[in-house]
């Protein structure tokens, strides 16, 4: 029996184009000024230290860090330091009304239904937990963070690693076969399935012919009671 559902964001609850055409360019545009302005903030300093460590460039100055971060953004590298900084930059964009978090229309009513059924709801994204809370806190449907019991980011591990799903199951405190992971990326679902989770793939765009996971186009097609 499914007792908790963990959902990806990009391509699952929200349009990949919102992330790639709105969020990522906003972070890119404001990165240099943000780092110059906020470098003394302990959370910014900690994220910059993480980037120096990841790049194995302990002596990198601000110019070097901007160059490294631009290259990570070009590669869409799921760097924990970059993701922390992007989340902090997006905060300004949400607060000043530059954008709201995109949600597919089927997402909110189905999450509400699952919550009423007593199913725990969680998020797992490469975006930082702070960025996840912003997207759902300033979503097109208003603040829906109350639906979620917890959030996970790359601090538990990368999304294609089996150990990440074991870590999440430990933190939620449920056995793997009581957990359902929703994602658009079959490699992430492969890792979750190897950890013993149930999986469903969201196909919001083109079909994925390489996938061995059950595929749906909307959340409303998923009935946790029959999984
Ligand atoms: C919190 S929305 C931004 C998501 C993000 O930054 C990202 O890189 C999405 O990556 P994912 O592995 O979750 O598809
Ligand atoms: Mg995704």
Automatic annotation (TrEMBL):
<dbReference type="GO" id="GO:0043874">
    <property type="term" value="F:acireductone synthase activity"/>
</dbReference>
<comment type="similarity">
    <text>Belongs to the HAD-like hydrolase superfamily. MasA/MtnC family.</text>
</comment>
<keyword id="KW-0378">Hydrolase</keyword>
<keyword id="KW-0479">Metal-binding</keyword>
<comment type="subunit">
    <text>Monomer.</text>
</comment>
<dbReference type="InterPro" id="IPR023943">
    <property type="entry name" value="Enolase-ppase_E1"/>
</dbReference>
<comment type="pathway">
    <text>Amino-acid biosynthesis; L-methionine biosynthesis via salvage pathway; L-methionine from S-methyl-5-thio-alpha-D-ribose 1-phosphate: step 4/6.</text>
</comment>
<dbReference type="InterPro" id="IPR023214">
    <property type="entry name" value="HAD_sf"/>
</dbReference>
<keyword id="KW-0028">Amino-acid biosynthesis</keyword>
<comment type="function">
    <text>Bifunctional enzyme that catalyzes the enolization of 2,3-diketo-5-methylthiopentyl-1-phosphate (DK-MTP-1-P) into the intermediate 2-hydroxy-3-keto-5-methylthiopentenyl-1-phosphate (HK-MTPenyl-1-P), which is then dephosphorylated to form the acireductone 1,2-dihydroxy-3-keto-5-methylthiopentene (DHK-MTPene).</text>
</comment>
<dbReference type="InterPro" id="IPR036412">
    <property type="entry name" value="HAD-like_sf"/>
</dbReference>
<keyword id="KW-0486">Methionine biosynthesis</keyword>
<dbReference type="Pfam" id="PF00702">
    <property type="entry name" value="Hydrolase"/>
</dbReference>
<comment type="pathway">
    <text>Amino-acid biosynthesis; L-methionine biosynthesis via salvage pathway; L-methionine from S-methyl-5-thio-alpha-D-ribose 1-phosphate: step 3/6.</text>
</comment>
<dbReference type="InterPro" id="IPR006439">
    <property type="entry name" value="HAD-SF_hydro_IA"/>
</dbReference>
<keyword id="KW-0460">Magnesium</keyword>
<protein>
    <recommendedName>
        <fullName>Enolase-phosphatase E1</fullName>
        <ecNumber>3.1.3.77</ecNumber>
    </recommendedName>
</protein>
């Amino acid at each position: 029996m499914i007792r908790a559902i963990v959902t990806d964001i990009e391509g699952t609850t929200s349009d990949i184009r919102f992330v790639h055409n709105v969020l990522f360019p906003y972070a890119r545009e404001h990165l240099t000024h943000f780092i110059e302005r906020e470098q003394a903030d302990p959370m910014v300093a900690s994220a910059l230290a993480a980037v120096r460590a990841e790049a194995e460039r302990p002596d990198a100055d601000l110019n070097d860090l901007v160059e490294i971060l631009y290259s990570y953004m070009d590669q869409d590298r799921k760097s924990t330091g970059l993701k922390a900084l992007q989340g902090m930059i997006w905060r300004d964009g949400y607060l000043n009304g530059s954008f709201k978090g995109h949600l597919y229309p089927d997402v909110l009513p189905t999450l509400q239904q699952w919550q009423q059924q007593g199913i725990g709801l969680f998020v797992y994204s490469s975006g930082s937990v702070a960025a996840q809370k912003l997207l759902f806190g300033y979503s097109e449907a208003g603040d829906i963070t109350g639906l979620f019991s917890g959030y996970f980011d790359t601090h538990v591990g990368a999304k294609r690693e089996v150990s990440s799903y074991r870590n999440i199951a430990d933190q939620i405190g449920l056995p793997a076969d009581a957990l359902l992971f929703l994602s658009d990326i079959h490699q992430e679902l492969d890792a979750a399935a190897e950890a013993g989770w149930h999986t469903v793939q969201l196909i919001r765009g083109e079909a994925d012919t390489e996938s061995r996971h059950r595929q749906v186009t909307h959340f409303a097609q998923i009935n946790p009671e029959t999984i």
